[in-house]
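Subgroup meeting minutes
Present: P.N., E.W., G.H.
Scribe: E.W.

1. P.N. recapped why we're keeping a running log of single-chain structure predictions: easier to compare across weeks, and new members can see raw inputs and outputs side by side.
2. G.H. added today's entry (465 aa).
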Amino acid sequence: MKEKVQVFGRALSGMVMPNIGAFIAWGLITALFIADGWIPNATLAALNEPMSHYLLPLLIGYTGGKVVHDHRGGVIGTIATMGVIAGSDIPMFIGAMIMGPLAAWIMKQFDKAIEGKVKAGFEMLVNNFSLGILGAILAGLAVVVIAPVVTGLNNVMEAGVNFFVNHHLLPLASVFIEPAKVLFLNNAINHGILSPMGIKQVEETGKSVYFLLEANPGPGLGVLLAYCIAGKGSAKSTAPGAVIIHFLGGIHEIYFPYILMNPLLILATMAGGACGILTFSLFGVGLKAPSSPGSIIAELMMCSKDSYVGLIVGVLIATIVSFVISLFILKVAGRDVSLEDAQAKKDSMKNASKGTAATVEGGNAEIPATGELKIAFACDAGMGSSAMGATVLKKKIDKAGLKNISVTHTPVSSIPKEINIVVTHEELGERAAHSNPNAKLILITNFLAAPEYDTLIQELQEIRK
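Output recorded in log:
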């Protein structure tokens, strides 16, 4: 069930993450040039509405379609998305997430049905007209049927959110958001659910607190600072580096393993997140666009000019609350274990159940003794922790003098088939195995200092000596 939820969440965030640069461009234009922006300019501010109503949904629709059926899927996904845009007067991000993949899937089924049945010389004619005819039909269907349904769904969601806002219950969102983040649903929550709601609110009020509900770095920062003081072993030694990567680099996945080692710490992040959201609400804090990555630097850049004090205070309070509770759990409750102990326990349980002692598991792909060896570090979006892990592993490979080995980073749901070895967090192991069942799989718990890195280097040195 957890894997299926992750896959669904990844499908949502996967349509937004590749286009996050466009969201940032729109956010900067909004922050600078609208009437209450830093440099009000009516001419340049005219970009705001067309970008939010047309550019961003069309990009989402194309990306969602392309994932399903390559370029043809992207094109028909864009055509169908235009239908939901024309059928509603609100930004159709949810409509794009529906119509992009749906239209591409229908196109894919049609292409499969006629494969091998088209006479030579008529391929281009059939391909172009089939896409055009299906696209026109789906665009019309989107205007008449899908757009009203999505608009109604949006109204229901808005009413639900307004209930929490009007009754000052928005901080309770942390009770759901913080545990979901640790299960690697952070991108799905932020970009798949909160960002569309936030962009609609920006259209109405010029800023939105929804962009901060998941992206607030305070709760995770408090946990990491507590580990700096009361952690054990490599958990304590790696925590300072994780603080920098999390707070300034915006890669929140870096603190997830520290919570997974001691699940009680989720209470600290829930409390810290709730206090942060309460502070944001009291100060009227809002961002102009999604903050990605969730770095304090990115959030300050996207911040409304009347929200800087509230943003800083909210992050600080979330950090302090999370830190105090985490410190109590680690130091007083006595539930903390070191990263080494957690890893040894996990390996012991695994080996006892399997009767093996292999570090590298799963898959049928052979590690070549010569020629190019391809290693991929996989995470949910393929842009954050996987990029960091790939950098760490690449440095170790270079230091060991190993040649002709490439290390890349990739989304866990689309690991290339030519990859020989996949390195990923143990929470994403099942998804990685499904994505590329032939690759050798290495499961880790710490992105910065996983002992499996050194074990892999030793094995590679033996194989390729």
